[in-house]
């Protein structure tokens, strides 16, 4: 079972490959620091520049948010959540951290398998 | 299998029952109207006034968003997402609607079962 | 949000309706009695006489097993698990009961919504 | 995010490490060959020799079955499915294969993270 990892698309020449990587990669959008014991919002969004199909036979079925080896939360979708239009799957999780975190997001495409984001460090004070 | 439904707590006298109902009920927070084919954010949040525990043996394990008979998205949690502190489970889903919706949210508490929100109508133009 | 409940199809006249109900209904197959603290297998299977499609735009996305108000286990599927052929979704869960149970299974079809089985009582000794 | 992979415990000396690896590893139990288009049962079971706790703060939260890069099915559990006794999480999935498969199972422990089984090849005729 292959796990695909994000690669900075500015290092890639072929347009089709840039598209392929970007639209399948989950990105973590959140602050660099959080307050201990307070609500902290983490957006997981697929693709910065390229949209992914939401077709019945080709869609993003789930997105997970991990902190090191701990699964924090998962969002699952049935095809059609984006109205069967190409788009960016996007979900905001809210967690309450107690110590420094190393967040990682995953996304699963029903045609192109499992993708891991880069790791995002969050300092908790 | 019992399905618990939200009851307006202003109609309830006993404080313990107000707390019980409010902290288990998922509430839908979104606009009343959406634009066809455009991203529409739907927040599902548990409790308006009372927080729910996030203990290992008593936590909110999942939240679902339905449109009529269609399951749009589900978020699942393992205990500890809220740092084992009482809080409001809260997740923002983003959907792309194509016609008028009747949204309903569900939440599952590992001690007190399944809860349904009131229905929320959204006009799509 | 409508919850469809199993109806004994021998009481139904119209062939299309028999088919519709049977193929969407989850059935619980297990012994009537279990031993406390020992593994107990519960099969959840869709349809006795009629098969359900496993098409990309029409499939059984999940099956749940409940004991009274407690969710014991859930199986989720992406379309194609049955090779895109009509069939009976079927999963065997193994639980370890501690007292008498009232089991109920649910199934979710991406076109025809949520279905509940009849309740199955299991005496635990 | 670390992914733990099964290691043959007969190659390991320390008893505590044998136990740690065996009880967290999902094992695939199925025939070596399947018939195209016919139901094929795949058992995923945790541990051959050692049982895993089913405590509220330490349990197996999910098990997945993959074929190469495709997620076939997932079973999720809330704590207590095994009656809060140490045991072997065990689920039978039924799939309908169309070509040769390379199956892999994963398991997620809420304390000790994600575990991958060895790959199991199945010839489909």
What labels would you give this structure?
Immunoglobulin-like, mainly beta, homotetramer, about 120 residues
Average pLDDT of chain A: 97
Give the C-alpha Rg of chain A: 15 Å
CATH superfamily of chain A: SOR catalytic domain
How many strand elements of chain A? 10
Strand content of chain A: 35-45%
Biggest β-sheet of chain A, characterized?
7 strands, mixed
Along the chain, the helix and strand elements of chain A come as EHEEEEEEEEE
Q: N- to C-terminal separation of chain A?
A: 38 Å
Unreliable sequence segments of chain A:
none
Give the CATH class of chain A: Mainly Beta
Quickly count the domains of chain A: 1
As an assembly, this protein is homotetramer
CATH architecture tag of chain A: Sandwich
Describe the protein in words.
Chain A has 125 residues and is mainly beta. The first copy, chain A, has one domain: Immunoglobulin-like. Chain A contains one helix and ten strands. In chain A, strands 1, 3, 5, 6, 8, 9 and 10 form a seven-stranded mixed β-sheet that branches. A three-stranded antiparallel β-sheet of chain A has the order 2-4-7. In chain A, strand 5 and strand 6 (70-77) form a beta hairpin. The model of chain A has no long low-confidence stretch (mean pLDDT 97). The interface between A and B is medium-sized, with 28 and 28 residues.
């Amino acid at each position: 079972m292959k796990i695909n990892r994000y690669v900075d698309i500015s290092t890639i020449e072929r347009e089709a490959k840039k598209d392929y990587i970007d639209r399948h990669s989950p990105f973590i959008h959140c602050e660099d620091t959080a307050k201990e014991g307070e609500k902290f919002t983490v957006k997981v969004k697929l693709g910065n520049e390229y949209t992914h199909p939401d077709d019945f036979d080709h869609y993003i079925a789930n997105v997970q948010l991990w902190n090191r080896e701990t699964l924090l939360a998962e969002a699952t979708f049935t095809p059609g959540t984006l109205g069967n239009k190409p788009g960016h799957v996007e979900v905001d999780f809210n967690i309450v951290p107690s110590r420094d975190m190393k967040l990682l997001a995953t996304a699963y495409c029903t045609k192109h398998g499992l993708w891991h984001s880069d790791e995002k460090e969050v300092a908790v004070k």
